[in-house]
Design brief:
Helix content is 13%, strand content 44%. The chain is mostly beta strands. The protein binds calcium ion.
């Protein structure tokens, strides 16, 4: 009986094998891959950080300095009077972004501030449409004062929201309005959610 069962099994196996070999090609096509519709939480679609110490001398003034409190432990340092009044100390990167809503940020530390409420620094977003690079414009900006830097030993992060409705070549700029000590750690750009 055991022999009969084994023989029957063998015949069945042969039949299945034969069946597989004769299967029409249409049945061998693999199912389509599953489409993942949700973006994984760790896959931020766009957040770029521009370390001030990596921008390069062609788009910065001042000098690089080590700072344990800074990202990369390095910052761009401008001593008091190290730039002219109304001069930009960092600008660029002249990168193209698509139409959308964005958040620009800058992390800075400032000291030797005047004892009043005057503007000491100016952050802005500027650039030109990709289709018309001659059409330079300042999209939006933010003035910083002594009260924005309550502790001269700490970095503070400032945020600017802006929209573009066409392909745009942007830059994030830091302007020197008073003779202060300035440490620029980084700027960044991300999509507003
Ligand atoms: Ca840095």
């Amino acid at each position: 009986m055991r022999y009969v069962t084994a023989a029957a099994g063998g015949v069945l196996a042969l039949a299945l094998l034969a069946g597989c070999q004769k299967a029409p090609k249409e049945e061998e096509i693999l199912p389509p891959p599953k489409i993942v519709k949700t973006i994984p939480a760790d896959a931020n679609p766009l957040r770029k950080v521009y370390e001030a110490e990596e921008l390069g001398p062609e788009v910065t003034l001042g000098e690089l300095t080590s700072d344990p409190a800074a990202s990369n432990q390095m910052s761009l340092y401008v001593k008091s009077g190290g730039a002219k009044i109304d001069e930009f100390v960092a600008w660029g990167p002249y990168e193209e972004i698509a139409p959308g809503a964005y958040i620009a940020r800058g992390r800075l530390k400032a000291a030797s501030l005047p004892d009043n409420d005057d503007q000491v620094l100016w952050l802005d977003v500027a650039g030109s449409p990709k289709a018309n690079r001659e059409d330079f414009k300042v999209l939006t900006g933010k003035a910083l004062r002594r009260k924005d830097f309550p502790d001269p030993d700490k970095y503070y992060t400032f945020q600017i929201n802006f929209d573009v409705n066409e392909a745009f070549v942007f830059e994030l700029r830091t302007k020197y309005l008073q003779k202060v000590e300035l440490w620029l750690d980084w700027t960044s750009l991300e999509l507003a959610q």
